[in-house]
Design brief:
The complex is a heterodimer of chains A (about 110) and B (about 375). Chain A is mainly alpha-helical and about 110 residues long. Chain A folds into 2 domains: about 80 residues, lambda repressor-like DNA-binding domains (434 Repressor (Amino-terminal Domain)), CATH 1.10.260; about 35 residues. Chain A is built from 7 helices and no strands. Chain B is α+β, with helices and mostly antiparallel strands and about 375 residues long. Chain B folds into 3 domains: about 120 residues, Acyl-CoA dehydrogenase/oxidase, N-terminal domain (Butyryl-Coa Dehydrogenase, subunit A, domain 1, Orthogonal Bundle); about 110 residues, Butyryl-CoA Dehydrogenase, subunit A, domain 2 (Beta Barrel); about 140 residues, Butyryl-CoA Dehydrogenase, subunit A, domain 3 (Up-down Bundle). Chain B is about 50% helix and about 15% strand. Chain B is built from 10 helices and 10 strands. A 4-stranded mixed beta sheet of chain B has the order 1-4-5-8. In chain B, strands 2-3-7-6 form a 4-stranded antiparallel beta sheet, covered by helices on one side. In chain B, strand 2 and strand 3 form a beta hairpin. The longest helix of chain B is centred in the middle third of the chain and has 37 residues. Chain B is globular, with a radius of gyration of 21 Å. The chains are: A mainly alpha (about 110), B alpha+beta (about 375). At the A-B interface, helix 4 and helix 5 of A face helix 6 of B.
């Protein structure tokens, strides 16, 4: 999972730099196939590899690693969805009649989205 | 093409490890398991050092055996057949040296690898877990504060294999706990650093010859050149190190399973009830057939994970799969071996009850099996 996220970042940074896989691979002293495997997350990337790529693509090291951290943060958020918690908190502060209206609205929205 | 014949080199390492296990571990395993208290037996280190096994995966140019992962797994299986507790001392080194090998600078390698290699080799350890940060590594609170050309470490690490007896520790600390995963960095800390002390040494159900304890860091000064990799890359370093260590754990699990199975098999062939060996009962022979099949399956999974690592490929999923499968199998096989031996198996006269107690730990350490399932599930 980690390598896949880093790989996607490499691909993005490479495309932003206007380089083909072959061009970047040459700069890195790799075969095109090896770089392709890095981008697909199939090959293990050591810190030294990421540092080298970061230098070639003129990006800070964190550009490639933060994504990994972000993904974890997102997953953590999913586990305790803050929106639901907030809605639930606000709802509980409303009178019963208002809560019923909102429930009907949610049901109506859900029907529309089907 | 896929082939399963081991090369001459692999066979020779397997033979060396098997002989070492038979001569230098098995004769001491039961005695160390039953010793009262938690005093570490330094003969374990001396015996391992003589064969070079403490530096199993340290590259040859630094004095190690420099084996690839498949060889390491095969060696781990052989040592696992003898005693998982005694093996833990060496396994602590393998964790630390795996980490150092992949992210250490030339200077760090030149300085620290020799401490794990050769006849005078000592121990090393990886210090990751904390009281409130086990599976949730991002919850690490041990603080690393940069001060000039040093970092100052404060905090405590729990359940650390080789705690208090290692020449150096690879310690994961955070620059800011609010940053969670993004704030972690890894440091090499000398075992004799002022301010570093040993806290509680755990008294455990199994792995009784292994020293596991708490490390306390109070204003421990670590030179900036002892930072591993770059600042804030500790999460990647830890994940990668554990991924690459899990196949050895799988190998050890296969080893202890094999030992329990072999005892159960020979017992079932000899033990007579109703005038015939109990193996002639399908109830028993089918149990043994299942055990043999599972061991074979776990070994292949472990070899596959090792092979992926040796090919430079991502082994995350395979490493976790082999850890879950092999370690849960080990507990179950040891349990079935006790069942086949009946009341005998439940006594300390036979080693299977010890195998069972030791094997239980493997589903917990180096990432619980629940965490492994989360990793596998995230990659489906």
């Amino acid at each position: 999972m980690i390598y896949k996220n880093i790989g996607q970042r490499i691909q993005k940074a490479r495309e932003e730099a206007g380089l083909s896989q072959e061009e970047l691979a040459t700069k890195l002293g790799l075969t095109q196939a090896a770089l392709s495997n890095y981008e697909l997350g199939k090959r293990r990337l050591y810190l030294a590899n990421i540092e080298q790529i970061a230098r070639e693509l003129n990006k800070p090291l964190n550009y490639f690693l933060e994504d990994t951290v972000e993904t974890i943060k997102t997953n953590e958020k999913k586990a305790q969805d803050e929106t639901i918690l907030e809605i639930s908190k606000l709802l509980s502060e409303l009178p019963l009649e208002e809560r019923k209206n909102i429930l009907e609205y949610i049901q109506w929205r859900k029907e529309k989205l089907k | 093409m896929i082939g399963f014949d081991l090369t001459e080199e692999l066979l020779s390492h397997q033979k060396m490890a098997r002989e070492f296990a038979e001569k230098e571990i098995i004769p001491y395993a039961a005695e160390l398991d039953r010793r009262p208290g938690t005093v570490f037996d330094w003969n374990i280190v001396r015996r391992f050092a003589k064969t070079g096994l403490l530096g199993l995966n340290v590259p040859k140019e630094y004095g190690g055996l420099g084996v690839d992962m498949l060889t390491a797994v095969i060696v781990a299986e052989e040592i696992g057949t003898a005693c998982l507790g005694i093996m833990s001392a060496a396994a602590g080194n393998w964790l630390a040296t795996t980490c150092l090998k992949h992210v250490g600078t030339e200077n760090q390698k030149r300085r620290y690898f020799p401490m794990c290699c050769g006849e005078n080799a000592g121990l090393a350890a990886l210090a990751l877990t904390e009281h409130d940060a086990g599976s949730d590594m991002a919850g690490i609170k041990t603080l690393a504060t940069r001060k000039g050309d040093h970092y100052i470490l404060n905090g405590a690490k729990t359940f650390i294999t080789n705690a208090g007896i290692a020449n150096f520790y690879i310690v994961f600390a955070t620059s800011d706990p609010q940053k969670r995963h993004g704030g972690l960095s890894a440091f090499i800390v000398d075992g004799d650093s002022p301010g570093l002390t040993l806290g509680t040494v755990e008294d455990k159900l199994g792995l009784r010859s292994s020293q596991v304890g708490t490390l306390i860091f109070k204003d421990v000064k670590v030179p900036a050149e002892n930072l591993l990799g770059a600042e804030n890359t500790g999460f990647l370093i830890a994940m990668q190190t554990l991924d690459m260590s899990r196949p050895c754990l799988g190998g050890a699990a296969v080893g202890v399973s094999r030992a329990a199975y072999e005892i159960a098999l020979s017992y079932a062939r000899e033990r007579k009830q109703y005038g015939r060996p109990i193996i002639e009962n399908q109830g028993i022979s089918f149990m043994l057939a299942d055990m043999a099949t599972e061991i074979e399956a776990a070994r292949l999974l472990t070899w596959k994970a090792a092979w992926l690592i040796d090919q430079g490929m991502d082994s995350t999923k395979a490493s976790s799969m082999c850890k879950v499968f092999a370690t849960e199998m080990a507990e179950s096989i040891c349990s079935r071996a006790i069942q086949i031996l009946g009341a005998h198996g439940y006594t300390s006269y036979w080693p299977v009850e010890k195998y069972y107690r030791d094997a239980k730990a493997m589903a917990i350490y180096e990432g619980t099996n629940q965490i492994q399932r989360m990793i596998i599930a995230s990659m489906l």
